[in-house]
Amino acid sequence: MKAIVYHKYGSPNVLKLEDVDMPIPMYDEVLVKVHAVSVNRSDWEGLTGKPLYARIGGLFKPQSRILGSDIAGTVEAVGKDVRKFNLGNEVFGLLLNYGGGFAEFACTSEKALALKPASLTFEKAAAIPQAAFIALQGIREKRQVQPGQKVLINGAGGGTGTFAIQLAKLAGAEVTGVDNSEKLELMLSLGADYVIDYTKEDFTKNGQQYDLILDVIAYRSVFAYQRALASNGTYFVVGGSVATMFQILLLGAWIRRTTGKKIRVLAVQTDAKDLVYITELIESGKVKLVIDKRYSLSETAEALRYLGEGHAKGKVVITVEQNNQT
Ligand SMILES: NC(=O)c1ccc[n+]([C@@H]2O[C@H](COP(=O)([O-])OP(=O)(O)OC[C@H]3O[C@@H](n4cnc5c(N)ncnc54)[C@H](OP(=O)(O)O)[C@@H]3O)[C@@H](O)[C@H]2O)c1
Protein backbone atom coordinates (compact mmCIF):
# COMPACT_ATOMS: atom_id res chain seq x y z
CA MET A 1 0.00 0.00 0.00
CA LYS A 2 1.02 3.64 -0.30
CA ALA A 3 1.86 5.57 2.86
CA ILE A 4 3.54 8.80 3.91
CA VAL A 5 6.69 7.65 5.66
CA TYR A 6 9.48 9.37 7.60
CA HIS A 7 12.72 7.93 8.97
CA LYS A 8 14.08 10.89 10.94
CA TYR A 9 12.69 13.86 12.84
CA GLY A 10 12.63 17.09 10.86
CA SER A 11 10.60 19.44 8.70
CA PRO A 12 7.79 18.27 6.36
CA ASN A 13 10.56 17.75 3.75
CA VAL A 14 11.50 14.44 5.43
CA LEU A 15 8.07 12.96 4.56
CA LYS A 16 8.00 10.67 1.50
CA LEU A 17 5.24 8.79 -0.31
CA GLU A 18 6.42 5.15 -0.30
CA ASP A 19 5.15 1.61 -0.90
CA VAL A 20 5.04 -0.28 2.41
CA ASP A 21 3.61 -3.59 3.65
CA MET A 22 -0.07 -3.62 4.52
CA PRO A 23 -0.75 -3.90 8.26
CA ILE A 24 -2.25 -7.24 9.34
CA PRO A 25 -5.04 -7.20 11.94
CA MET A 26 -4.40 -9.09 15.19
CA TYR A 27 -7.22 -10.97 16.99
CA ASP A 28 -9.11 -7.92 18.27
CA GLU A 29 -8.07 -5.57 15.47
CA VAL A 30 -9.79 -4.11 12.46
CA LEU A 31 -8.11 -3.30 9.13
CA VAL A 32 -9.57 -0.08 7.78
CA LYS A 33 -9.33 1.16 4.22
CA VAL A 34 -8.66 4.82 4.95
CA HIS A 35 -10.83 7.32 3.07
CA ALA A 36 -9.85 10.38 5.11
CA VAL A 37 -7.41 11.21 7.89
CA SER A 38 -7.10 14.49 9.75
CA VAL A 39 -3.97 16.33 10.80
CA ASN A 40 -3.34 17.13 14.46
CA ARG A 41 -0.69 19.09 16.31
CA SER A 42 0.41 15.69 17.70
CA ASP A 43 1.45 14.80 14.10
CA TRP A 44 3.48 18.00 13.86
CA GLU A 45 5.10 17.21 17.21
CA GLY A 46 5.80 13.62 16.10
CA LEU A 47 7.33 14.90 12.85
CA THR A 48 9.60 17.51 14.41
CA GLY A 49 10.33 15.55 17.60
CA LYS A 50 9.42 18.63 19.65
CA PRO A 51 8.48 19.00 22.48
CA LEU A 52 10.62 16.21 23.88
CA TYR A 53 7.61 14.08 24.90
CA ALA A 54 7.01 13.54 21.17
CA ARG A 55 10.15 11.32 21.23
CA ILE A 56 8.78 8.84 23.76
CA GLY A 57 9.68 5.43 22.33
CA GLY A 58 12.20 6.88 19.87
CA LEU A 59 14.70 9.38 21.28
CA PHE A 60 16.91 9.64 18.17
CA LYS A 61 14.62 8.43 15.40
CA PRO A 62 10.85 7.93 15.20
CA GLN A 63 9.54 4.68 16.62
CA SER A 64 6.64 4.56 14.19
CA ARG A 65 7.37 5.51 10.58
CA ILE A 66 3.83 6.60 9.72
CA LEU A 67 2.08 9.53 11.41
CA GLY A 68 -1.66 10.28 11.37
CA SER A 69 -4.06 9.29 14.12
CA ASP A 70 -7.62 10.25 13.19
CA ILE A 71 -9.06 8.05 10.47
CA ALA A 72 -12.38 7.37 8.75
CA GLY A 73 -12.86 4.55 6.28
CA THR A 74 -14.38 1.15 5.55
CA VAL A 75 -13.68 -2.13 7.31
CA GLU A 76 -11.54 -4.26 5.01
CA ALA A 77 -10.71 -7.20 7.32
CA VAL A 78 -11.23 -8.16 10.97
CA GLY A 79 -9.35 -10.30 13.52
CA LYS A 80 -11.10 -13.43 14.79
CA ASP A 81 -12.19 -11.87 18.11
CA VAL A 82 -13.75 -8.74 16.61
CA ARG A 83 -17.45 -8.56 17.49
CA LYS A 84 -18.50 -4.96 16.82
CA PHE A 85 -17.79 -4.64 13.10
CA ASN A 86 -18.30 -6.46 9.81
CA LEU A 87 -16.63 -6.11 6.44
CA GLY A 88 -17.76 -2.98 4.62
CA ASN A 89 -18.86 -1.06 7.76
CA GLU A 90 -18.04 2.64 7.66
CA VAL A 91 -16.06 3.52 10.78
CA PHE A 92 -13.96 6.29 12.32
CA GLY A 93 -11.73 6.74 15.35
CA LEU A 94 -8.39 7.60 16.93
CA LEU A 95 -5.67 5.01 16.26
CA LEU A 96 -4.53 3.80 19.67
CA ASN A 97 -0.81 4.45 19.21
CA TYR A 98 -1.38 7.83 17.52
CA GLY A 99 0.16 6.68 14.23
CA GLY A 100 -0.38 4.74 11.01
CA GLY A 101 -3.14 6.89 9.53
CA PHE A 102 -1.33 8.69 6.67
CA ALA A 103 -1.73 5.56 4.54
CA GLU A 104 -4.19 3.68 2.37
CA PHE A 105 -4.87 1.16 5.15
CA ALA A 106 -4.55 1.28 8.95
CA CYS A 107 -5.07 -1.24 11.74
CA THR A 108 -6.34 -0.67 15.26
CA SER A 109 -8.28 -2.28 18.10
CA GLU A 110 -12.03 -2.44 17.59
CA LYS A 111 -12.35 -0.50 20.88
CA ALA A 112 -10.91 2.59 19.19
CA LEU A 113 -13.55 2.71 16.46
CA ALA A 114 -17.20 3.67 16.15
CA LEU A 115 -19.66 3.33 13.27
CA LYS A 116 -19.67 6.45 11.11
CA PRO A 117 -23.14 7.96 10.81
CA ALA A 118 -24.32 8.15 7.19
CA SER A 119 -24.96 11.88 7.66
CA LEU A 120 -21.23 12.58 8.02
CA THR A 121 -18.79 12.40 5.13
CA PHE A 122 -15.50 10.54 5.71
CA GLU A 123 -13.70 13.92 5.80
CA LYS A 124 -16.00 15.25 8.52
CA ALA A 125 -15.75 12.05 10.56
CA ALA A 126 -11.94 12.08 10.36
CA ALA A 127 -11.89 15.65 11.68
CA ILE A 128 -13.52 14.61 14.96
CA PRO A 129 -11.69 12.05 17.14
CA GLN A 130 -8.57 13.43 18.86
CA ALA A 131 -9.68 17.06 19.05
CA ALA A 132 -13.14 16.12 20.29
CA PHE A 133 -11.79 13.72 22.95
CA ILE A 134 -9.54 16.44 24.37
CA ALA A 135 -12.29 19.05 24.28
CA LEU A 136 -14.93 16.76 25.79
CA GLN A 137 -12.69 15.45 28.53
CA GLY A 138 -11.31 18.92 29.25
CA ILE A 139 -14.68 20.66 29.43
CA ARG A 140 -17.29 18.09 30.35
CA GLU A 141 -15.50 15.40 32.38
CA LYS A 142 -16.66 15.28 36.01
CA ARG A 143 -19.09 18.08 35.10
CA GLN A 144 -16.37 20.64 35.74
CA VAL A 145 -18.24 23.51 34.04
CA GLN A 146 -21.32 25.00 35.70
CA PRO A 147 -23.58 27.61 34.05
CA GLY A 148 -22.22 31.12 34.48
CA GLN A 149 -18.67 30.00 35.22
CA LYS A 150 -15.75 31.63 33.46
CA VAL A 151 -13.85 29.32 31.10
CA LEU A 152 -10.68 30.21 29.19
CA ILE A 153 -9.38 28.08 26.33
CA ASN A 154 -5.78 28.72 25.35
CA GLY A 155 -5.17 27.79 21.70
CA ALA A 156 -8.91 28.06 21.04
CA GLY A 157 -8.69 28.62 17.26
CA GLY A 158 -7.16 25.19 16.52
CA GLY A 159 -8.57 21.67 16.30
CA THR A 160 -9.33 21.09 19.98
CA GLY A 161 -10.20 24.69 20.72
CA THR A 162 -12.94 25.01 18.12
CA PHE A 163 -14.77 22.08 19.77
CA ALA A 164 -13.97 23.28 23.30
CA ILE A 165 -15.45 26.78 22.80
CA GLN A 166 -18.75 25.28 21.68
CA LEU A 167 -18.89 22.65 24.44
CA ALA A 168 -18.20 25.27 27.10
CA LYS A 169 -20.95 27.49 25.68
CA LEU A 170 -23.36 24.52 25.65
CA ALA A 171 -22.56 24.06 29.36
CA GLY A 172 -23.62 27.68 29.92
CA ALA A 173 -20.18 29.14 30.59
CA GLU A 174 -18.81 32.58 29.80
CA VAL A 175 -16.02 31.72 27.36
CA THR A 176 -12.74 33.45 26.57
CA GLY A 177 -10.74 32.15 23.60
CA VAL A 178 -7.02 32.85 23.21
CA ASP A 179 -5.21 32.48 19.89
CA ASN A 180 -3.48 34.60 17.24
CA SER A 181 -5.09 37.58 15.49
CA GLU A 182 -6.03 35.56 12.36
CA LYS A 183 -8.36 33.38 14.49
CA LEU A 184 -10.20 35.95 16.63
CA GLU A 185 -13.17 36.18 14.26
CA LEU A 186 -13.52 32.40 14.06
CA MET A 187 -13.54 32.09 17.87
CA LEU A 188 -16.25 34.77 18.15
CA SER A 189 -18.32 33.06 15.43
CA LEU A 190 -18.26 29.83 17.48
CA GLY A 191 -19.69 31.62 20.50
CA ALA A 192 -16.68 32.92 22.46
CA ASP A 193 -17.78 35.89 24.58
CA TYR A 194 -14.27 37.36 24.71
CA VAL A 195 -11.15 36.77 22.64
CA ILE A 196 -7.51 37.50 23.38
CA ASP A 197 -4.71 37.75 20.81
CA TYR A 198 -1.83 35.92 22.47
CA THR A 199 0.70 37.94 20.49
CA LYS A 200 -0.57 41.13 22.18
CA GLU A 201 -1.82 40.13 25.62
CA ASP A 202 -0.81 37.60 28.28
CA PHE A 203 -4.00 36.19 29.84
CA THR A 204 -2.14 35.36 33.04
CA LYS A 205 -1.24 39.02 33.56
CA ASN A 206 -4.49 40.88 32.83
CA GLY A 207 -6.00 40.55 36.31
CA GLN A 208 -8.81 38.19 35.21
CA GLN A 209 -9.43 34.85 36.93
CA TYR A 210 -11.17 31.81 35.47
CA ASP A 211 -13.00 28.81 36.95
CA LEU A 212 -11.62 26.49 34.26
CA ILE A 213 -8.66 26.90 31.93
CA LEU A 214 -8.10 24.33 29.17
CA ASP A 215 -4.64 24.83 27.71
CA VAL A 216 -3.55 23.03 24.54
CA ILE A 217 -0.26 24.90 24.32
CA ALA A 218 1.23 25.72 27.73
CA TYR A 219 4.70 27.16 28.18
CA ARG A 220 4.46 29.45 31.21
CA SER A 221 5.38 28.84 34.83
CA VAL A 222 2.89 26.99 37.00
CA PHE A 223 2.57 30.13 39.17
CA ALA A 224 1.30 32.15 36.19
CA TYR A 225 -1.53 29.64 35.74
CA GLN A 226 -2.25 29.67 39.47
CA ARG A 227 -2.62 33.48 39.29
CA ALA A 228 -5.16 33.20 36.44
CA LEU A 229 -7.35 30.69 38.33
CA ALA A 230 -10.27 31.64 40.58
CA SER A 231 -10.35 29.99 44.02
CA ASN A 232 -11.36 26.33 43.58
CA GLY A 233 -10.64 26.75 39.84
CA THR A 234 -9.18 24.02 37.62
CA TYR A 235 -6.39 24.28 35.05
CA PHE A 236 -5.90 21.41 32.58
CA VAL A 237 -2.90 21.25 30.29
CA VAL A 238 -2.90 18.83 27.36
CA GLY A 239 0.10 19.99 25.34
CA GLY A 240 3.00 22.42 25.48
CA SER A 241 6.50 22.59 26.83
CA VAL A 242 8.00 19.71 28.79
CA ALA A 243 9.33 22.18 31.39
CA THR A 244 5.78 23.41 32.11
CA MET A 245 4.35 19.90 32.28
CA PHE A 246 7.15 18.78 34.57
CA GLN A 247 6.53 21.74 36.91
CA ILE A 248 2.84 20.92 37.01
CA LEU A 249 3.50 17.27 37.82
CA LEU A 250 5.94 18.34 40.53
CA LEU A 251 4.01 21.22 42.13
CA GLY A 252 0.34 20.62 41.19
CA ALA A 253 -0.52 18.60 44.30
CA TRP A 254 1.22 21.11 46.60
CA ILE A 255 -0.65 24.06 45.02
CA ARG A 256 -3.91 22.21 45.48
CA ARG A 257 -3.19 21.57 49.19
CA THR A 258 -2.15 25.16 49.87
CA THR A 259 -4.62 27.11 47.67
CA GLY A 260 -7.43 24.73 46.67
CA LYS A 261 -6.67 25.42 42.98
CA LYS A 262 -6.34 22.31 40.82
CA ILE A 263 -3.53 22.39 38.25
CA ARG A 264 -3.22 19.12 36.33
CA VAL A 265 -1.99 17.41 33.18
CA LEU A 266 -5.04 15.90 31.50
CA ALA A 267 -4.33 12.41 30.16
CA VAL A 268 -6.84 12.04 27.35
CA GLN A 269 -8.62 8.69 26.97
CA THR A 270 -9.84 7.14 23.73
CA ASP A 271 -13.52 6.41 24.21
CA ALA A 272 -15.84 5.27 21.41
CA LYS A 273 -18.81 6.47 23.53
CA ASP A 274 -17.43 10.02 23.32
CA LEU A 275 -17.39 9.67 19.52
CA VAL A 276 -21.07 8.79 19.51
CA TYR A 277 -21.87 11.67 21.91
CA ILE A 278 -20.00 14.34 19.92
CA THR A 279 -21.40 13.05 16.63
CA GLU A 280 -24.93 13.46 17.98
CA LEU A 281 -24.13 17.06 18.90
CA ILE A 282 -22.79 17.66 15.39
CA GLU A 283 -25.74 15.98 13.68
CA SER A 284 -28.21 18.02 15.76
CA GLY A 285 -26.41 21.23 14.78
CA LYS A 286 -25.42 22.05 18.39
CA VAL A 287 -21.73 21.75 17.55
CA LYS A 288 -20.24 22.99 14.29
CA LEU A 289 -17.36 21.12 12.68
CA VAL A 290 -14.69 23.56 11.50
CA ILE A 291 -12.66 22.21 8.57
CA ASP A 292 -10.25 24.77 7.19
CA LYS A 293 -8.52 22.94 4.32
CA ARG A 294 -8.44 19.61 2.51
CA TYR A 295 -5.39 17.94 0.90
CA SER A 296 -4.68 14.63 -0.88
CA LEU A 297 -2.45 11.92 0.64
CA SER A 298 0.45 12.91 -1.63
CA GLU A 299 0.11 16.48 -0.27
CA THR A 300 0.47 15.44 3.39
CA ALA A 301 3.73 17.39 3.80
CA GLU A 302 1.96 20.60 2.73
CA ALA A 303 -0.93 19.86 5.08
CA LEU A 304 1.47 19.48 8.01
CA ARG A 305 3.37 22.60 7.00
CA TYR A 306 0.12 24.58 6.92
CA LEU A 307 -0.72 23.49 10.47
CA GLY A 308 2.84 23.75 11.80
CA GLU A 309 3.31 27.26 10.45
CA GLY A 310 0.24 28.36 12.38
CA HIS A 311 -2.32 28.99 9.62
CA ALA A 312 -4.90 26.30 10.39
CA LYS A 313 -8.26 27.56 11.62
CA GLY A 314 -9.93 24.48 13.07
CA LYS A 315 -9.11 21.18 11.35
CA VAL A 316 -7.07 20.16 8.30
CA VAL A 317 -8.14 16.95 6.53
CA ILE A 318 -6.44 14.63 4.04
CA THR A 319 -8.57 12.70 1.56
CA VAL A 320 -7.11 9.36 0.49
CA GLU A 321 -7.68 8.48 -3.15
CA GLN A 322 -9.61 5.18 -3.51
CA ASN A 323 -7.92 3.44 -6.42
CA ASN A 324 -6.07 0.55 -4.74
CA GLN A 325 -7.41 -2.96 -4.24
CA THR A 326 -6.33 -5.36 -1.46
N1 LIG B 1 -2.61 14.97 27.17
C1 LIG B 1 -3.01 14.05 26.30
O1 LIG B 1 -3.38 12.93 26.66
C2 LIG B 1 -3.01 14.41 24.84
C3 LIG B 1 -3.60 13.56 23.91
C4 LIG B 1 -3.61 13.94 22.57
C5 LIG B 1 -3.02 15.14 22.18
N2 LIG B 1 -2.44 15.94 23.13
C6 LIG B 1 -1.84 17.24 22.78
O2 LIG B 1 -2.87 18.21 22.79
C7 LIG B 1 -2.50 19.28 21.90
C8 LIG B 1 -3.69 19.47 20.98
O3 LIG B 1 -3.54 20.52 20.18
P1 LIG B 1 -4.51 20.77 18.92
O4 LIG B 1 -4.50 19.55 18.07
O5 LIG B 1 -5.76 21.38 19.35
O6 LIG B 1 -3.56 21.85 18.23
P2 LIG B 1 -3.85 22.90 17.09
O7 LIG B 1 -5.01 22.47 16.25
O8 LIG B 1 -2.55 23.16 16.43
O9 LIG B 1 -4.31 24.17 17.93
C9 LIG B 1 -3.44 24.87 18.76
C10 LIG B 1 -3.74 26.34 18.63
O10 LIG B 1 -2.94 27.05 19.58
C11 LIG B 1 -2.45 28.23 18.95
N3 LIG B 1 -1.26 28.72 19.64
C12 LIG B 1 0.06 28.58 19.31
N4 LIG B 1 0.83 29.19 20.23
C13 LIG B 1 -0.01 29.73 21.14
C14 LIG B 1 0.20 30.50 22.31
N5 LIG B 1 1.42 30.82 22.73
N6 LIG B 1 -0.87 30.88 23.01
C15 LIG B 1 -2.14 30.58 22.61
N7 LIG B 1 -2.40 29.85 21.49
C16 LIG B 1 -1.34 29.43 20.78
C17 LIG B 1 -2.17 27.77 17.54
O11 LIG B 1 -2.13 28.91 16.72
P3 LIG B 1 -0.84 29.34 15.85
O12 LIG B 1 0.24 28.34 16.03
O13 LIG B 1 -1.44 29.36 14.50
O14 LIG B 1 -0.52 30.69 16.32
C18 LIG B 1 -3.38 26.90 17.25
O15 LIG B 1 -4.48 27.64 16.76
C19 LIG B 1 -1.23 18.82 21.20
O16 LIG B 1 -0.11 19.41 21.83
C20 LIG B 1 -1.22 17.31 21.43
O17 LIG B 1 0.07 16.74 21.48
C21 LIG B 1 -2.43 15.60 24.43
Blueprint of the fold:
Elements: E1 2-5, E2 16-19, E3 29-39, H1 41-48, E4 70-78, E5 90-94, E6 105-109, E7 113-115, H2 122-126, H3 129-139, E8 150-154, H4 159-170, E9 174-179, H5 184-189, E10 194-197, E11 210-215, H6 222-227, E12 229-237, H7 242-259, E13 262-265, H8 272-283, E14 291-296, H9 300-308, E15 315-319
Parallel strand pairs: 8-9, 8-11, 9-10, 11-12, 12-13, 14-15
Antiparallel strand pairs: 1-2, 3-4, 3-6, 3-15, 4-5, 5-7
Helix pairs in contact: 3-4
Explain what the structure shows.
By secondary structure, the protein is of the alpha/beta class. The protein is 27% helix and 26% strand. It is built from nine helices and 15 strands. The chain has helices spanning 41-48, 122-126, 129-139, 159-170, 184-189, 222-227, 242-259, 272-283, 300-308; strands at 2-5, 16-19, 29-39, 70-78, 90-94, 105-109, 113-115, 150-154, 174-179, 194-197, 210-215, 229-237, 262-265, 291-296, 315-319. The strands form three sheets. Strands 3, 4, 5, 6, 7, 14 and 15 form a seven-stranded mixed β-sheet that branches. A six-stranded parallel β-sheet has the order 10-9-8-11-12-13. The protein has a two-stranded antiparallel ribbon with strand order 1-2. Helix 5 (184-189) links the parallel strand 9 and strand 10. Helix 3 packs across helix 4 (159-170). The longest helix is centred in the C-terminal third of the chain and has 18 residues, at 242-259. The model has no long low-confidence stretch (mean pLDDT 95). Residues 40-42, 45, 130-131, 134, 154-155, 157-161, 178-180, 183, 198, 216-217, 238-239, 266-268, 307, 310, 312 line the site of NADP nicotinamide-adenine-dinucleotide phosphate.
